[in-house]
Amino acid sequence: MLMLAGTSVSALATTGGVSAGGSSAVITTTPASVGGAAPTTPTPTVKKPHAPIVSKSANIAYTGPVYEKTATGQVIPYTTPQTPGEVTSATGGSTVGVVADTKPELLVPGSVARFVNGLAAAPMSAPLAVQEIIWAGNQIVGLPYIYGGGHGQWNDAGYDCSGSVSYVLHAAGLLKTSEASGEMESWGQQGVGQWITVYANGGHAFIEIAGIRFDTSAEQDPNPPSGTGPRWRPVMDSTNGFMARHPSQL
To answer: Helix (H, G, I), strand (E, B), or coil: what is residue 138?
Structure first.
């Protein structure tokens, strides 16, 4: 059992992402019974969890437990802020208004990301790179769309489609320099990834991570938030016309 700041919960992270206390779950073996050797059993094959693209419903509200990774690496229960800048979003998109220099690094049990008050919460069982992409997206969600934004500098006043995708990939160490949408058609490896998929063509790019979408376009968003720029949205039912690319092993 893992301890979340004094609260006992089941071990939830097995693939390198953040678990309770900021570290991976530790597997221990059953001690030998008194007077005899421990039985020898074959090592079980652990299937790597992944986030299937299934979040296609217009209603994707989440009411389960939410945790926050603190600056010291602790994972504690998350308390919704009660401030004038508080953000609420019951379904698809995320809204503008989180007033903070750094937004919380949210976590939820399982292998699918969730929408929590306009931000995205990363799945606890996801690899760290997946969690970092989601947390990076939260830092720029709500900023306006600016053509060329995110290409001249990482920290910008606004972002265009490929600039926002480049920003989150860079935050996870998966991209060194920003790329235009056309360049992303050949980024990484071909096809849909287990956790991360970049969709790109000559005119647009967006990214789907752990069952949710980070996109400047409101296409196929049943409840688009106000404003322009990068927002969290449900995944698309159809991605016809886009090249699907993914990072190695993700």
So the answer is: helix
